[in-house]
Amino acid sequence: MGIVENVIIVLHNVFSSQKIVEAAKVAYGMGFKNFAVTKAQGSAAQIGVPEAHKLAIKKKVNFFYLQSIDDVIELFQPSEIYLFVPQGYAKEKFNPEIVAEKASQKVVAIVFGGSEPGLSKKELEKGTPVYIENLYEHTTIGMLAIALYLILNSAKFNTQKY
Questions:
Q1: CB 44 within 8 A of CB 14
Q2: CA dihedral over 66, 84, 50, 3, signed as positive or negative
Q3: DSSP assignment letter at 94
Q4: Could you give the number of structural domains in the chain?
Q5: Torsion angle of C-alpha atoms 52, 57, 62, 68, degrees rounded to 10
Q6: pLDDT digits (tens, 9 = 90+) for 54-64
Q7: Which helix (H) or strand (E) holds 93?
Q8: What single-letter DSSP state applies at residue 1?
Q9: What CATH number corresponds to the domain at position 78?
Q10: Which of 3, 12, 82, 98 sits between 20 and 30 A of 162, alpha carbons compared?
Q11: What residue numbers bound the domain in which 10 lies?
Q12: pTM over 0.90, yes/no
């Protein structure tokens, strides 16, 4: 399996149905095969989840609706978990080359907070909190799109090196 199959994209703690659908469109539009939503509430759970699931069926990709990040860990057993946060909340800069390299061989989960403040301190302990350099104002969909693009671009670059 390749990178697009081994990366599990997780949108956690989301209230907006539109945010779920937009995230799914970005993930699937870039060729990734696995998108999970955890802790969806309100219209996100009632409208966004079914819409994202319908989109996944149409595109013949995978959509998972789970209760928590712990469920993602239990079911997919990722070798690494990267939690995307604003720069002030993480010490480590996101390195897409490392993620692409790891995902070329094993399952990797990348987690994005779906609402403010995003991810709790306890949730950040479940993996490695990372930030995207030079991204000072962050939105969930923007951060997700940039991260996925950088992972894909790094994967293409790495395969061209050899």
A1: yes
A2: negative
A3: P
A4: 1
A5: 40
A6: 999 999 999 99
A7: strand 92-93
A8: -
A9: 3.40.1280.10
A10: 82
A11: 3-161
A12: yes
